[in-house]
Amino acid sequence: MASSIDIANDEAPPVDATIDYIPSHQLTPLSDPDSHIQGLIEGLESKDWIKLCESLNDTRRLALYHSTLLIPFIEPVMVVMVKAIKNPRSALCKTSIMTAADIFTVYRDKLLEPTISAAFDNLLLQLLLKSSQDKRFVCEEADKTLNSMVQSITPLPLLQKLQIYASHNNPKVRAKAAIYLSNSVSRMNLEELQEFGLVSLVQAAAKLLNDRLPEAREAARSTIMSVYKLYPEDEDQKQESWQNFCESNLPALHGQSIIKITTSH
């Protein structure tokens, strides 16, 4: 189904037959990918938003079917995607968010390499912002893309990125970051948790337990339970050792809150 959004009325977007929101599985390979890659950046820099959407969909096709051709352009492509997500025209924003999902699925940990890490950070922040806004169809697309990110990228380095935003000034961003942080933690083994740092992870979760939004508090509880399940002690000694761990590394009230969560399950 074809649809797009008129910038003049974001609350009740009219249908416009010029933009297709194409699911990834319906995208097809490009017949001449080499010629598309040569004109890709020019298309992505277009002032014509319809042409830009078309170029973003070409980017998705290149990623899915001709991934090696796109690798040298990943950093400038992500810079364009961030600008498009910020754009008040919702059709452009959503198309860029869908592009991000395919980029995450294909390139995975390559996106964390030092040369493009800053572009990834900016993209992650914009996705968290969009997933926490009130415009439902954009919010839902951003959530789907963030879930793709969590499933595609190795949890440990991703957790290091998400931890920054779990203390963001915007409470909605904090809550969303807490949710995806919790999802990442649930995919980790004990060795990975220890490499990240059990103390810093539990301290971050403890702060979120008192957050303003219930989503952040629930994500914090989920994170704590994931850590507790993997906590390295025999079951007979686990509770006592865990209690000592919490009391040694947290303020008294935080420690008591975490102990209460783990003993009630």
From TrEMBL:
Any GO CC annotation of this UniProt entry: cytoplasmic microtubule
Every TOG domain range: 26-252
An example Gene Ontology molecular-function term: microtubule binding
InterPro entries linked to this entry: ARM-like, ARM-type_fold, CLASP_N_dom, TOG
A biological process from GO: microtubule cytoskeleton organization
Coiled-coil boundaries: none
Leader sequence segment: none
One Pfam match: CLASP_N
Domain of life: Eukaryota
Name by which UniProt lists this protein: TOG domain-containing protein
Organism encoding this protein: Saponaria officinalis (Common soapwort)
Lineage summary: Eukaryota, Viridiplantae, Streptophyta, Embryophyta, Tracheophyta
